[in-house]
């Protein structure tokens, strides 16, 4: 194709989409002009008389840079090379602010509450009077801080369950599509449902429970409250049982807390009868199958002889029981 034509990029993009439409629909190829990202397991034969320049190609890689992001197995993150120097970005002029917001907008999907964070800055990009105050500086610093964080996004798994989280305010609206992952890893730390997964280390688990139970601001709470405090950050299997054992063995709780459990009624010895039929026990057996008009038994026990008398009877239950 000739260089310099106004519609050349759109025409070239259309041609590429048409040639690779089958692979694109199958989710095996992504194309932006002459940047082609192929993610498949098998090497296929070259077709359509298109040629590749070897020094610009990467084959069978586990991680690659594509359109400003780093793509690896199941993950996408911002390119650290593109973000180099973001923390030292000086206070901008109006023109520089427009460039800065254009740059950050490209990575907005990596920044939580992006619209809300940049609201004070976007108000200065129009015809409004330029006023760089505390709100604008705080938004600028907050945006730089979030840009410097190593945020990782998960590549869509179409077979899993999705969760949509949406929020709105007077100045911003947003939504995010999430996959619920039971166990994940970040910075060499395992997470279970956003809680740090504590390995099977008795002393370490005991220390974590102690921080939530024995701390001066905790006040030695019970099992339920201690578990709630631990779950703010941590999780491990059979955690409730470990907390119950720890709280039950807390010396301070044993000395200072009174039991809130109802006391059992005292037990008394039954009087031993000296002759038959001076003492009997009576009980009912109900909900028996009907037989000759009877559906229950009156049970009488002679406590002296241990003899049992069964008397058939009929019990009719009303709506009140």
Automatic annotation (TrEMBL):
InterPro entries: DNA/RNA_pol_sf (IPR043502), Integrase_H2C2 (IPR041588), Retrovirus_Pol_polyprotein (IPR050951), Rev_trsase/Diguanyl_cyclase (IPR043128), RT_dom (IPR000477), RT_RNaseH_2 (IPR041577)
Domain Reverse transcriptase: 3-50
UniProt keyword annotations, A-Z: Multifunctional enzyme
Residue ranges annotated for the Reverse transcriptase/retrotransposon-derived protein RNase H-like domain, each copy included: 132-192
Location of the Integrase zinc-binding domain: 202-258
GO molecular function: catalytic activity
UniProt-listed Pfam families: Integrase_H2C2, RT_RNaseH_2, RVT_1
Gene3D superfamilies: 1.10.340.70, 3.30.70.270
Keyword ATP-binding in annotation: no
Listed PANTHER family: PROTEIN CBG26694 (PTHR37984), PROTEIN NYNRIN-LIKE (PTHR37984:SF5)
Protein name: Reverse transcriptase domain-containing protein
